[in-house]
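Appendix B. Chain record.
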Amino acid sequence: MESNQGQFAVGSASNRKKIAKFFYADLLPTLHPIRGQVVILGTILHIASLLANIVYERDTEDEDEEKTNIHQGEWDTRIYPIIKDGKSMWANRFSNDYIQNLKEMFIKNGLENEFYQEFMCKPFSPDKQFFKQEHFNYFSKILYKEIVPIVVMNDALNHNQISCPQPVSIVLESKTVNIKDCQVYTTMDLASYDGADRTAIVTFALAPDNNIYILDISCGHWTPYEKAVNAIRIQVMFNPIKFGIEKAGALNDFFYTMQTAQVQTGIRVNICPLSHHGKEKNMRIAQLQPYFVTGRIFMNKKQAQTLELEAELLSFSIDVESKHDDLMDALAYMVEFIGNKDMRETIDDDYSGENYTESDIFF
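Structure tokens predicted for this chain:
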């Protein structure tokens, strides 16, 4: 079936309730109990719509009665945003530049919600937004050195020549910020074993103007070897003073590969463990809000992954556990490093948390 929920149909709670009752009480019972299947094609037009509840595995909305659980059978859900892992899903039709211009046109006409729901599959309710579009700041681009170092890395199955362009400065409309004057950090949020989420790496600079510039966002469904390749690439490109990696059960195989990569390439990664300190994920992500509201965070306008990060932030709800939060989760770990640091003051750069020993990192 094709989801025929228009903006009007999903605009009120009563209409959404009627649609849910038709779907579960009238449509699903007509299926053959063994061979019956339902295929739904549609666009998520509201965060509480039937389609959203199915995709994000939530209970149906019912304000007056006890909630009805929707998990009657298993749903295989697939989401196709126009940008994924920094690449256009239809590159032969929509270039990254075209998508960026399209987004700017929608925002200019006050239709940012429509852009994210139609093209990024990320609906949000403007009146309930935790992060808002008007708080997003951008810089124009990053200038790099002309000579690009190449790092060779391989294992039994792979051979990679990794290009690592090195940044010189951050270009804004009114000024330029030299990278050498900044403190650069990297945070890495590892994917779980079930493959539902992605590994995400966010690199940012704390600059003398006390602003935070997101230099690079990298993400993907990577093998342990590919995670190590990207970690080495980021280290050579940006030379972060600390490379934070989330503590989790999935670390063991990755750190074995990282040990091999560091020995093979001769490149040391200053790994520091990241801890959530018992805070729920949504509370950690919510800590980013003051940085955006005060205009301290600037995103890279030229990087396609910025669009993915925006979509995650705009659809974030502090009361709902998100299934697609890899980028903002990695970004939230930035608070672990900078906290209340002020570049206009003397900064003690010693990491106060637990560090890995040499034996943890090297053979």
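Further analysis of this model is presented in Appendix C.
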